[in-house]
Design a protein that fits this description.
single chain; 72 residues; alpha+beta; two-stranded antiparallel ribbon; 3 helices; 2 strands; globular
Length: 72
């Protein structure tokens, strides 16, 4: 994700949040994730997509970024 922060960081805010910190448990529950994963919200905070767990790679992450870019 660090590469995406460098190339897309002006357009999209990327956050790595540890489960259990801040409002992460609430956000995970709201996004209907089992425990952790990707939660992608648009700039108004509306849920765009989730990916549960760690079963994703660069291709899936890039697809989420593309969806967020399309929401601009």
């Amino acid at each position: 994700m660090n590469d995406l922060k460098k190339t897309k960081g002006k357009e999209i805010v990327f956050k790595n949040v540890l489960v259990g910190s801040g409002k992460s448990a609430e956000e995970i529950k709201k996004a209907k994730l089992k425990g952790h994963g990707i939660i992608a919200n648009d700039k108004e905070g509306k849920l765009v997509q989730t990916i549960d767990g760690h079963a994703y790679g660069k291709k899936e992450v890039n697809a989420v970024v593309a969806k967020l870019e399309a929401k601009k």
